[in-house]
Amino acid sequence: MTKRAAARQHKWKQWGKTLLLATLLPAGRAQAAPEITWYYFDVPPQYITAGPQKEKGFLDLALRNHIIAAMPQYRHKLVEAPFQRLELMLKSDPNTCVMGLFRKPEREQFMWFSRPFLAQFPPGILVRQSAREKVAPYLNERGKLSLRRLLEAGELKIGVGGTRSYGAVIDGLLKPHLGEANIYINSAANAASGLVQMAAIGRVDAVPGFPYEAQYLGMDVAKGGSALAYYPLAEQPDYLLGHAACAKSEFGKQVVKDIDDLLQQASVRNAIADYYASWLDDGTRKLEKELRKYTASPAASSPSPPP
């Protein structure tokens, strides 16, 4: 055998060993799985980032139990960020996703949205049980409270967070009345829990908020006070739909497709709805069952507020 032939044979043997090694290596060693960066925010009980119930928020459980656990084809990195930074991250990082955003036209310019996975009640008004008779004149025939009429009357003391947005509807209704004597503004870092405590002990009559805030924040701060009741608003739609959202990249588009494959299972959507319902009071929990039908259609969208 010539030296050239021997060298060729040695080369082919080495190439064969390399090929065999590549086929025997686990897929993760041969080529790392793509990584999703999941951003989450400290807004309990959606996400709970500290304390004895850490990672037990309803979005914590939805993400970890039904999305991450069911998508082993990706690596997953979880990063906490202020809610205000989420849109910036989704604009700048093509591998970024968030579980639990409302779909808005302005967000669709730079986000892909999954099918809806949760129908939830919009922000309303939390009133202590002993003050329910005070809001009775402002209820319509469906039992919804008119925040516009309540604010115009100026008879109840309303506590609001100075740096918090309650959404376009409530913010718009509150704006002309900020500074009036019956509007108490709390700008502290823990304003949400502080206002719930004030409502529970009668320092204010009502505070805006989601129904689950009364349960989560009221568990510890309402001792010696009164439990809070949630009133939906006449100015709000009946429900809002939560979605997973990913950056508007080819990667994000594929991730959303994979998430949709999971969310088409009614058992997954019902499990997530159960997590949400566990934070509602008994009366609101019964009403929540009626909302589940709105996530059955992959093309469903949140209704517009009433005129």
CATH superfamily of the largest domain: Periplasmic binding protein-like II
H-E string:
HHEHEHEEEEHHEHEHEHEEHHH
The CATH architecture of the largest domain comes to: 3-Layer(aba) Sandwich
Strand content range: 15-25%
In total, the number of strands is 11
Protein structure class: alpha/beta
- Number of helix segments? 12
What is the arithmetic mean of pLDDT? 87
Largest sheet: 6 strands, mixed
Name of the top-level CATH class of the largest domain: Alpha Beta
Uncertain runs with pLDDT below 50, 5 residues or more? 10-30
Q: What do these coordinates show?
A:
This protein is of the alpha/beta class and 307 residues long. It has two domains: 35-121 and 239-295, D-Maltodextrin-Binding Protein, domain 2, CATH 3.40.190.10; 124-231, 3-Layer(aba) Sandwich (D-Maltodextrin-Binding Protein, domain 2). It is built from twelve helices and eleven strands. Strands 1, 2, 3, 4, 5 and 11 form a six-stranded mixed sheet that branches. A three-stranded antiparallel sheet has the order 9-6-10. A two-stranded parallel ribbon has the order 7-8. Helix 8 crosses helix 9 (211-221). The protein starts with a helix and ends in a 16-residue tail after the last helix.
